[in-house]
Amino acid sequence: MTIAFESPDQPDVIALIADLDAYQDTLYPPESRHVLDIASLKQSNVLFAVARDSEGKAIGCGAIVLNPDFGELKRMYVSPRGRGQGVARKLMAMLESRAIEWGCKSLKLETGPYQHEALALYASAGYERRGPFGDYADDPLSVFMQKHIVA
């Protein structure tokens, strides 16, 4: 497996993100889904990482949107065939490391209460629950978390 910072507008990465969207469509109504499209993921303040298997196929991705005061973890996803191999942890570690290099001191995220594996992963990686941040409204279908990161 390899992980690298790549452009999100590649066919296999677009398909991976479409799988994530289809999965979330089964869990939450549109008004409770706070996603970034491909164009947003290509902005200069976004770090976008892709995990690829030994055949070079995209099996996971994640992004951090760098804001003036914090970074926001977005679009974390590992395909079913990539799960159980530590892909999500490695993606998060690489994203966090690069965010630190950019001077980021804390990371925040919004996820949903029905994504039990994601909640467990984030908690085990040091993220703690908090209230809404940024433009997010308080929503029973949102769970907000944060982690302080330092060099």
TrEMBL record:
InterPro entries: Acyl_CoA_acyltransferase (IPR016181), Bact_Acetyltransf (IPR050832), GNAT_dom (IPR000182). Residues 3-150 form the N-acetyltransferase domain. SUPFAM superfamilies: Acyl-CoA N-acyltransferases (Nat). The keyword Transferase applies. Keywords: Acyltransferase, Transferase. It comes from the Bacteria. It holds the Pfam family Acetyltransf_1. PROSITE patterns: GNAT. This is GNAT family N-acetyltransferase. It comes from Burkholderia theae.
